[in-house]
Fold this sequence. Notes:
Helix content is 47%, strand content 17%. The chain is α+β, with helices and mostly antiparallel strands. The protein folds into three domains: 55 residues, Orthogonal Bundle (Arc Repressor Mutant, subunit A), CATH 1.10.10; 129 residues, Arc Repressor Mutant, subunit A (Orthogonal Bundle), CATH 1.10.10.10; 174 residues, Dna Topoisomerase Vi A Subunit, Chain: A, domain 2, CATH 3.40.1360.10. Strand 2 and strand 3 form a beta hairpin. Helix 4 packs across helix 12, helix 6 packs across helix 8 and helix 15 packs antiparallel against helix 16. The longest helix has 20 residues. It starts with 5 loop residues before the first helix and ends with a helix.
Amino acid sequence: MSEVTPDLILKQLTRRWKATRRLTKALKIDSGQLRRLLKKMEEEGLIEARKVGGQLEWRLVKGEAKRISQIRKEPKAFKEEQKTPDQIRVDMQGLGQNLYRTLSKGEFPEIELPSRSTGNIRFDQELGQYVLAGKTVTRSTRNVGQIRSFSQLVWVMRFLKELLSEGKSSTLRDIYYQSFGYGVKFGQQSESDTTITDVEAKLKTPRESFRVFPEERAAIYGDLTIEYTAPPKYAGKRVNCTDHPDGLMIGPYLTSAKFIGCKAKKVIAIESGGMFTRFVEDGVHETQNALLIHTAGQAPRSVRRTIRRLRYELNLPTFLFVDADPWGAHIAMVIISGSASAAHLRGLATPDAVWMGVWASDIQRYDLPSDAFTDTDKKRTQDLLKDPRYQTKFWQRELKLFLKNERKAEQQAFSRYGLSYVTEEYLPQKFKEIEKLQSQGLI
């Protein structure tokens, strides 16, 4: 007999009714065990039952069917998001040809872009993330005040096309300094970063596909085997994420690598490097059967995309462990629901990831060393309370508790009870608490 697990059953069920006897035959498992597990899954709200001719039939509830459907579609959707260098070059060339034709007619060239203003950003409840509405803006050389930004936009696209042609990568910082050599004047790096984002929005292509990356510091550790697809020297090479004690850097090549084999059952994303190292040293990847990810503070896109891939390609639930303050809470929420600044892109959010702590209530429950809220902390928390992403009872409860107690704490505060207390005591207790809250529909 095979071991009975919820995942085995969920893979067999759809929104169509299936009799218990058919499930027993398909799974080749003990019918008594199967019935007990089916009943438990029904109580948890994953499946529903009906009786036909004295026989029980089962199917997925609508919400669970939708979730599983999304998981199954995601690998295909992820591939569709990734344009090849040739496709990107064709898109850029088409834009350039339009500008050339306009100039040859003696007319003022212009470029229409999706508006990324706050008025054109809305929160999509179904997707669980921010998206752009339909407004556009136009950069035109007819307007003297727009000539500078128009020229910057065209130069950035030219530079990105060069990168692709030469098969090279660059960083956001590199591009800012490269502009000096071409006489393109950006006041500061944030200005060139914004221009690159405009190109993303125009071509509906993330900067990573242009081979432009930020400085990476994030890492992953655990029993996951990957196969690199690039650069050519490493294509086909396989590496296990336990091969290096500091973990493997989540850079551009790991982000696009194939997932070959994984024994982990969950992902734990950790805000601070010190706590990530503690988890590795204490063998949390083994005791919790988890992949450990260091987000390096606010998770860069490479981390968010990797977490999303792990969720949808390998069906690994994600748990987010951050500091107990509004800034840590926001780090978790950006992984869950994305950010307004990246509303023009999809594929960066993991809507069912769970903020596992440190919660405001944990500061009280564990009597953690804490610091007083500053005025900035208070304002930030008040802003989050109004944000559409934070409107569930659970999030509202914890944010209001921050304001009520006006205290914040770091992940390392658990060290008052010993260096390994957080991994040996807090984590097991927290996972049980989360399981209970999930069964009650509170998380």
